[in-house]
Amino acid sequence: MKKDKNNRLNDWEKKFVKEVKIEASNEFSYETDEGISINPLYTSEDLLNYEFNDVNSLPGEWPYTRGPKASMYTNRPWTIRQYAGFSTAEESNKFYRKNLEAGQMGLSVAFDLPTHRGYDSDDEIVMGDVGKAGVAIDSVEDMKILFDGIPLEKMSVSMTMNGAVLPVLAAFIVAGEEQGLDKKVLSGTIQNDILKEFMVRNTYIYPPEPSMRIVADIIEYTANEMPKFNSISISGYHMQEAGANNVQELAFTLADGMEYVRAAMSKGLAVDDFAPRLSFFFAIGTDFFMEIAKLRAARTLWARIMQDFGAKDEKSLTLRTHCQTSGVSLTEKDPYNNIVRTSYEALSAILGGTQSLHTNSFDEAIALPTEFSSRIARNTQLILQNETGVTNTVDPLAGSYFVEKLTEDMCSAAWKIIEEVEEMGGMTKAVAAGMPKLSIEESATKKQAKIDSGKRIVVGVNKFKNPKEPKIDVLVIDNEKVREDQIKKITILKEKRNNDLLREKLSIITEAAKNKKGNLLELCVEAIRARGTVGEVSKALEDAFGRHYATNLGVSGVYGKFFEKDDKFMAIQNKINNFEKENGRRPRVLIVKMGQDGHDRGAKIVATSFADLGFDIDMGPLFQSPKDVAKDAIENDVHAIGVSTLAAGHKTLVPELMKQLKALDKSNKIIVFVGGVIPEQDYQFLYDNEVSAIFGPGTSILDSAEKVIELISKK
Amino acid sequence: MKELKDRIVAGERAAIAKAITLVESSREEDIQQSHELISQLIKSPGHAIRVGFSGPPGVGKSTFIESFGTFLVNKNFKLGVLAIDPSSNFTGGSILGDKTRMSEISKNDNTFIRSTPSRGSLGGIAVGTREAAIILDAAGYDYIFIETVGVGQSEITAANLVDIFTLIVGPGSGDELQGIKKGITEYADLFIVNKNDGDLAAQASKTASDYKSALSFYNKESNTLDTQVVLVSSVENKGMDLVLDAYNQITETNKNSSEFQNRRKNQLSYWLEEEVRNKILLKLDKDREISKKIANEVTKIISGDTGFYTASQAIIDTFLDKNK
Ligand code: B12
Ligand SMILES: Nc1nc2c(ncn2[C@@H]2O[C@H](COP(=O)(O)OP(=O)(O)OP(=O)(O)O)[C@@H](O)[C@H]2O)c(=O)[nH]1
Questions:
Q1: Last residue of a domain, one of B236, B257, B278
Q2: Are residues B34 and B69 in the same domain?
Q3: What ipTM was reported for this prediction?
Q4: Model confidence over A305-317: pLDDT tens digits?
Q5: Cα–Cα dist A69/A78, whole Å
Q6: What angle in degrees, to the nearest 10, is found between the helix axes of B308-322 and B288-303?
Q7: Number of structural domains, chain B?
Q8: Residue B274 domain-assigned?
Q9: How far is CA B17 from CA A637, B8, B12, B46, B323, in A?
Q10: What is the CATH number of the domain that holds B115?
Q11: What is the per-residue pLDDT across A98-107, written as a single tens digit (0 to 9) for each?
Q12: What amino acid positions of A are annotated as catalytic residues?
């Protein structure tokens, strides 16, 4: 007997209600961070009335929801592309070669922060940062060493570089040249996505306007000279890692893409001349189905966007993307759990149809990966490719009521934000107004509040804790040694080169930058060929463009709202109020970022949450030196300094801060505590340097606030 | 206190900072100590010119101070900045972010930058701002900038703290002008139109000439210069020399006509009066006996045993008698 659909749905509803003893099944609907509601059941009804998603489309067919290609992994699996780099070019080269032998398929270079920000390793300002969070590249000589023995005509190379993109890409081109290769054969991707640097990644150098010109110059140059090279990797990854929800990530990334298309068209390029070489980069977090839907939605929307730009070439219409599993979903506590998290995320990326993938190592929240942790991360993908059968069918989740509906929901939610951005005049304007940054920070703060209040469970962190944390090995980088080695190489380079010639090349760059004439990449290639350093070329550009300084905002009130009437929250507030009564002012804490470390998510969340609790918080700008911090702290007579450090500069920067504080005030009693990514092996070192407390990843902000007010009161 | 004073006069950064904490504090002992300190410092003033900055949120006050401040320290002047930060949270805490917009001058050895939460206090001036300026003056700073939140009353209160008062405005519509017009000539010595760059440049010039023509309707007293209007761009560091020229002219003219000295005298008298008023009010508020008497007199007024004004006089008499 066949009942009609409505009757059967009613029956299901009755059964459901009976099973779980509630009024109606929709009480079990769940609202995601994105504000999308997830229901307990989806049916064929949910496939109707779509505006964006076409459930009958095929892979490689408009609107490309099911994939940019017809064959997808059945023909060739995704590229296993692990992001790596540390210490010197020599060390990183060794590491790359081993990985390639072990099954990795493409390279992805992680540069150190001084290189990102356009400083040479011998610059005083970057003392604590050289070789620490990536590989130090000062000149074409380093670049040549980095790819020594790696045939660049065969190996595709991805480079995460945005701030110092001109000298670094130039060095790559010249390195190829000196391997005997025409730049036409070079394949790979340069990130070259400056807008998201201003939003979340913080390795910008120049102000937005000249930065956009650089992007356009690179698109122009590669469109003409390097047909196999992706001129840009439009990145949402960093947004999600900075706290964006999936809809924000999707919308802002596509809106960035639109802005780059316009920038390139303003150079007189026709859309189909460059659009096939635009590539994307997304994060894949733990929200399994949402991530799959995000990738499908991204392709769907991009096709529509490019059609509106007049693209005809199918390659212009299709969105191709790299993905990376989420680092921020990984925990310092009980770190082997991270292998499991990463595996699910990787599966999600594959079911979403990514073209290449990086899987994170389980020691993500502790330090750069070791050889051991990298191997497991790589094998996670090798196992997926070779043992699970996921490559045998294209877009296997198509037709799932739930996934199709979620894809459509993602499309329409993201489209709304894109329209909002367009109304503001596009992403450059929206970024200048601080809109995307603030909304991402708000989401980040909400996530923290959900975890701290126990509304969201993170296994091993706020529930199911491991009473016996395992000890694990960490990668240690001797940055002083790296710095010495780099300085030696720079000295030799500078002795051998023709300084007059270089000076001329550099002044041509400055002129062209000022006059808005010429292609800057072309000119930088010449300066790099003349053995100019990354720092010198960056400086030549800075002379014309100036440096960009961001103003730190923050969203107050967001954290506090989650804790209305919460006992612990109110107890801390009381302590603070009592402190004020006794001391004539509120406890005052300076929260700082030192060196080139641009990870500001934690610092900002802690700052605004502490203010919500009643602290007076001084927020320092990014990139302060220990000396600047000491001056700020003394002048504002703060009770404590909270150093937020994630890029491994702590062992240099914290002792230096202590020294500077004493230099300004012999009887200095300011309490210093440290938060961020600190391997346990370094705790004693910091305590020995008079650090009063350390708050690692996963710390509940309420716990840290309690400790801080206690320490200040004791003083 | 003597020791603290000496350390301040010697320009010791930590001592200046501690002293500012004292004058901002609400703790009784701190208040006593701060009185002692300020009385000492006031006897041997330095030579600082105090400049006030006010203007609507977002016009670029901090950015201007960063740019103009850099210009000044490059000329070897010592600069103190007191930034009153309006951001105060519903729970009473606050985020002080000014320094992120003054990152260059913050680094300089010849500056002292202090932010203070306004805590919603009237006039956009925080408790202790006047005293903090005295401390920086005694410490030998050449210029002291006071940056305030630009809302309503604040112009007047801030103007009462400084030798030169500056209004910063953006390239804006005429609406702003309407609001500001009244009384501006009395308080502002200089108008700065910021953001004279890029797309905004044309609008900025137009705003400047609008202000100029509006200002021409107001005649200043003869002992001061007419209010000037200067166009600057804080992000492109344009027009900073013009601002310094204007300040030098204003100072010179005012000193020659004794306006400079008169203002300081008037400010002192204003401050003294305010201090007296506040003290009396505080005493009155805390007086239990007076509150009881008020209650009694109210009953009597209602029952018809006394008249309203007789009652008020009786209360005043009691209070004055008590405090003889
Ligand atoms: C998010 C993230 C990013 C984002 C940053 C976005 C942003 N605007 O902040 C993006 C994607 C842009 C990014 C980029 C890079 N990253 Co990153 N990133 C992370 C990641 C995954 C999470 C950090 C985070 O935000 N966590 C969430 C916040 C809320 O936590 P938190 O900052 O730890 O703060 C908590 C506590 O530590 C503590 N706390 C922290 N500060 C303070 C301060 C006070 C006062 C108090 C009381 C408490 C406190 O309380 C907070 C709440 O619990 C970490 C790995 C990890 N899981 O920790 C890597 C990590 C920090 N990144 C790393 C690297 C190398 C980079 C790059 C340099 C890579 C490269 N070579 O290009 C770039 C450059 C970025 C830059 N400009 O500096 C490395 C650093 C290596 C090391 N320390 O040895 C890490 C450790 C990953 C790894 N293992 O390789 N990254
Ligand atoms: N184009 C342009 N923008 C400027 C200029 N000066 C400041 N801005 C921008 O205006 C915005 C506000 O500047 P702030 O210095 O924070 O303004 P403020 O008046 O101190 O603001 P509040 O502290 O909020 O009262 C920032 O985004 C600055 O970058 C300028 O000369 N030209």
A1: B257
A2: no
A3: 0.91
A4: 999 999 999 999 9
A5: 12
A6: 160
A7: 3
A8: no
A9: 6, 9, 9, 17, 37
A10: 3.40.50.300
A11: 999 988 888 9
A12: 83, 237-238, 593, 597, 599
Q: Is A693 in the pocket of ligand 1 (CB under 6 A)?
A: no
- Cβ of residue A425 closer than 8 Å to a chain B Cβ: no
Cβ neighbors of A329 (< 8 A, separation 6 or more) are: A285, A286, A341, A345
Position in ligand 2 atom list of the atom nearest CA B66: 15
Q: Is the pLDDT of residue A628 over 90?
A: yes
Q: Provide the CATH number for the domain around residue B29.
A: 1.20.5.170
- CA–CA min distance B187, chain A (Å): 30
pLDDT tier for residue B226 given thresholds of 50, 70 and 90: confident
Report which bound ligand comes closest to the CA of A551: 2
Q: Which residue of A has its CA nearest to B85?
A: A618
More confident of the two residues B125 and A431: A431
In a domain, B281, yes or no: no
Question: Shortest CB distance from A617 goes to which of B25, B26, B96?
Answer: B96
Per-residue confidence band for B59, with pLDDT thresholds at 50, 70 and 90:
confident
Share of chain A above pLDDT 70, in %: 99
Reply yes or no on whether the pLDDT at B153 is more than 70.
Answer: no
Residue B170, pLDDT > 60, answer yes
Cβ–Cβ of A582/B117 closer than 8 Å? Answer: no
Residue B188 and residue B317 share a domain: no
Phi then psi for residue B181, to 5 deg, are: -45, -50
What are the CA-CA distances from residue A44 to residues A291, A403, B141 (Å)?
Answer: 22, 12, 76
Tell me how many degrees the CA angle A713-B3-B7 measures, rounded to the nearest 5. Answer: 90
The residue-averaged pLDDT of B151-169 equals: 79
* Boundary residue ending a domain (B43, B61, B77): B43
Cβ distance of B17 and A552 shorter than 8 Å: no
Same domain, yes or no: B33 and B120: no
> Which structural domain range is residue B135 located in?
45-257
Is residue B62 located within the same domain as residue B168? yes
HSE-up of A477 (CA within 13 Å, CB side)? 28
Q: How far is the CA of A647 from the centre of ligand 1 (A)?
A: 7
- Judge whether A537 and A166 are in contact, CB under 8 Å: yes
For residues B49 and B133, membership in a common domain is answered with yes
pLDDT, tens digit (0-9, with 9 covering 90-100), for A488-532: 999 999 999 999 999 999 999 999 999 999 999 999 999 999 999
Nearest CA to ligand 1 atom 58: A365
At B73, list the tokens. Answer: 């320290």
Do B84 and B224 lie in one domain? The reply is yes
Return the ∠ at Cα A313 (arms to A308 and A319), rounded to 5°: 70
Q: What is the pTM of this model?
A: 0.94
> Which among A553, A616, A625 has the least Cβ separation from residue B93?
A616
- Does any domain span residue B96? yes
Contact (CB, 8 A) for A606 and A574 = no
Report the distance separating Cα A559 and Cα A589, nearest Å.
18
CA A325 to chain CA centroid, nearest Å: 11
Residue A51, both tokens = 């505006």
Instruction: Report chain A's mean pLDDT, rounded to a whole number.
Output: 96
Residue in A211, A698, A662 with CA at minimum distance from that of residue A469: A698
At B277, the pLDDT band (50, 70, 90 cuts) reads confident
The Cα of B50 is separated from the nearest Cα of chain A by a number of Å equal to 19
Statement to judge: residues B25 and B51 lie in one domain? no
Is B111 inside a domain boundary?
yes
> Which of A332, A233, A344 minimizes the C-alpha distance to A284?
A344
Task: Quote the ligand 2 centre to A97 CA distance (angstroms).
Answer: 50
Reported as a single tens digit per residue, the pLDDT across A558-616 is: 999 999 889 999 999 999 999 999 999 999 999 999 999 999 999 999 999 999 999 99
B176 and B191 part of one domain: yes
Q: Taking CB atoms and an 8 Å cut-off, how many pairs form between chains A and B?
A: 116
Answer whether A591 contacts ligand 1 (Cβ < 6 A). yes
Q: Which tokens in the block code for residue B116?
A: 């203070």
